[in-house]
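2024-03-11 09:14:02 DEBUG pipeline.ingest accepted 1 chain
2024-03-11 09:14:02 DEBUG pipeline.ingest length=407
2024-03-11 09:14:03 DEBUG pipeline.predict start
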Amino acid sequence: MKNFEIWWLSIGIILTSATQMRLSSLPIGVGEVMLCIWMLFSIVKILIVKQHLITPTLKYICLFWMVGLASLTFGLSIADSRNLTSTTWYHDYFAFGFLFVFSICLTNSHFFYSQIHQMLDYAVSFSILVLSTIFLFPSSISFLTPWYEGVRFLGWSQNPNQLALLLSAVPFLSIHLFLTNSNVFARLKFLILIILCLIIGIATQSDALIFAWMIGFTVTILLNLYSWLNHKILSRRYIKSEIKVIWLLIIAVLLAIALLIFTEISYQGIYSASANVYDEGGQGSLRVTLWKNGLTAISASPLFGLGPGAHSGSTAPFLDFEAHNTFIDWGSSSGILGIIAYIAILGWIAWQVWNKQSFILLSAIVALIVFSSFHYVLRHPIFWFYLLGINSLTVQNHRSRYQISQN
C-alpha cells in the first residue's frame, strides 16, 4: 500500500506540469486531481490514526505559509481599499491555499523522509521517459501538441517554460541518485536520464533553464574543486602553516579568476534570458519594464503587499501583468514580510544541505533560485516538491531529528 501511495504521489506531482491535459474551463488537471485525492487520504489518515510527525521541516514550512497567507490577506484588504485589487487574486489565493495543505501533508508523511530516494526515482524516471517518448514520437499521443510552432518543445505543457521548471532540478537530482546508488544498472539508468533531460531541456529553448543549469554546474565544479584541494593539500599535517597560507592565496586567486569569468558569462546569460518573455522573443526591455513596474507595485504597500494576483504591467504597474520574477511577484503580493519568509526558508534549507556538504544538492537549490528569477514559481507544486525533497535528503538518516506524537 505504501509503495502505491509513493507512486501515486510522485506521478501526481509530475503531472501538475501537464497543463495541456487540464480542463479547459478550470485550472486543474490530472495531476491536481491526483494530489487532491492523496491530500484527502492523508488528512483522513491523520485524523483516524491520530499520529503525526513533528519535524523541523514541518515547523518551518508551517511558519512560512502562516506568514505568507497572513500577509496576502492583509495585502488584499489594503489593495481593496485603494481599488488596486488584481483581477486574478482568487486564482492565486486558491493556489497558495492548495500548496499550504499540500506542503503540510507532504512534510507530515513518514515515507517522505524514509523513502525520498524512491520518490525522486519514480518522479525523474516517469517524467523523462514519457517526455522522451513524446519527443521522439510526437504523434504518439493525439491529444497533445508537443511543439510550439515547430520550434520549442512543449511536451505535455501549454508553455515551454512550464516544462523547463519541471526539468530545472532534474540533472542535479539524477546525479545525486547516481552517486548514492551502488547498483550498476541503476547508475546506467540515471546516466541515460541525465542525457535525455539535457536534450529535452535544450529543445525547450528556455534561456532561463540553460542559464540555471550553467550556474548550477559551475557552482558544483567550484565547490568540489575547493573541497578536493582542501582535502588533498591543506589538510595534510606535515605542511607548514606558511605554505598553507600560500596555497589558500593561490586558491583564492584561482576562484577570483573563475568568478570573473563566471560573472561575464552570467551577464551574457541574464541578457540572453531577458530577451525572451514567454513567446515575446527579442523584447528584452519588456522584462526589465515588468521588473521595474513590479518594484513600483511593492512600494505601494511595502509591508504586506497588495494581496494575491499580478500587479505589474508593460506600461505601468497594476495592469495584471506578472513581473516574471519570483522575488518581485511574491513581494508585490505579500510585501517585505513575505520576501523575508521566503528567503528564510530558502536559506534554512540551503544551510541544511551545506552542513551535509552535498554540493550537487546545493547546486540544485541554486538552479531553482536562478530559474525563479525569470519566472513566478511559488504556485507550482513541483517547485515545493523539489525544495522540500532536497531538504528531506539531508535529514532522512537522522531519525532523532523528528518524533512521532500521538494525541
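2024-03-11 09:14:41 DEBUG pipeline.report Residues 2-406 form one domain.
2024-03-11 09:14:41 DEBUG pipeline.predict end
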